[in-house]
Amino acid sequence: MIHRKLGPSGIEVSAVGFGAWAIGGWMWGGADENQAVAAVHAALDHGVNLIDTAPIYGFGRSEEIVGRAIGDRRERVVLATKCGMVWDREEGDFFFHSNDDGVTFRPAEKKVYKCLRPDSIRAELERSLQRLGTEQVDLYQTHWQESTTPIADTMAELTKMKEEGKIRAIGVCNASLVHLAAYGPIDSDQEKFSLLDREIEQNGSLAYCRRQGIGLLAYSPLANGLLTGKIGPDRQFGAGDLRRGNRRFGKSNLEQVAAMLEQIRPIAEKHRATLAQLAIAWTISRPGVTVALCGARNPQQATENAAAGDLSLSPEELETIGKIVHL
Ligand SMILES: NC(=O)c1ccc[n+]([C@@H]2O[C@H](COP(=O)([O-])OP(=O)(O)OC[C@H]3O[C@@H](n4cnc5c(N)ncnc54)[C@H](OP(=O)(O)O)[C@@H]3O)[C@@H](O)[C@H]2O)c1
């Protein structure tokens, strides 16, 4: 497993991280808790040390499952969670309605707001620490950016948390270049990035992070599973699964992606690797990317994904993969 420093924090992280969104079930058609715990254990046993979760992932459920999974091995984990998506107060920017399955397009029991007010993120941190069963979060990230709280106020509170020892490093997610500059000295930025989602290479964010020495966590490196090549046209997605009815997972797109993946299959076969592993290896090879945060719902997926951190592809192979697989 390749290890890298996470921005100025100096924290050593595995280049393949474990993303704990799907194991919370919310927006993923539910999740099996025992499989979820086993997935976290498998990831850790195969060299992954970074686990990324968030309060919103199952309204606390993902954090609780992660807490349960790492209870007896906390010292082996770089634990990342987030703040700024709340359902206990109507302050900040309204984001969406949700029920326990997922986002709804009409009013539902929960109203989710993007809120980065100092008192709100402070209360969120305390709840996260409790759910995670720990006294310190290694990386604390603002989950989405909002328009009602000055970034300086949010940053001042995050800095205070760091001084108090409740968090070790500060990160942001889903941030524009303007946000990044306004935050000042942060350790990481977390953005969507995969073979099929290359916006940060085009909008300057990745180059900015690289120049500033900010760690970059690439989220959804498998494009929500699409790049594994294992989602066929007959796959049914459960209630609330973000892929259900999503055009990206519609028949014509699935066929287009499958055709591209077939073209890179010889590279996978040559290395006795899977398509998922090629996609992850490509992501962590991109200059400026520190970690690929890979979601996994069971030990098999977690083990397969972790092994991508040991896959060594030539510059020519990486270039071929990047040229063939794109949207
Ligand atoms: N900051 C943010 O706003 C943000 C947003 C999104 C994600 N994230 C982070 O990034 C992490 C990863 O992103 P993601 O969960 O959206 O997507 P992903 O890693 O691109 O895909 C994960 C999904 O793909 C399938 N999968 C994974 N490994 C597989 C394998 N080896 N073989 C077959 N299928 C496999 C699983 O779903 P099925 O088994 O159901 O097919 C899994 O849930 C999240 O968990 C979260 O930590 C952050």
Task: Please give a structural write-up.
By secondary structure, the protein is of the alpha/beta class. The chain has one domain (3-324): NADP-dependent oxidoreductase domain (TIM Barrel). Helices cover 37% and strands 20% of the residues. The strands form three sheets. The protein has an eight-stranded parallel β-barrel with strand order 3-4-5-10-11-12-13-14, surrounded by five helices. Helix 4 links the parallel strand 10 and strand 11. Helix 1 crosses helix 2, helix 1 runs parallel beside helix 10 (299-307) and helix 8 packs antiparallel against helix 11. The longest helix is centred in the C-terminal third of the chain and has 20 residues, at 251-270. It starts with a strand and ends with a helix. The structure holds NADP nicotinamide-adenine-dinucleotide phosphate (NAP). NADP nicotinamide-adenine-dinucleotide phosphate binds at residues 19-22, 52, 143, 173-174, 190, 219-225, 228, 230, 276, 293-297, 301, 304-305.
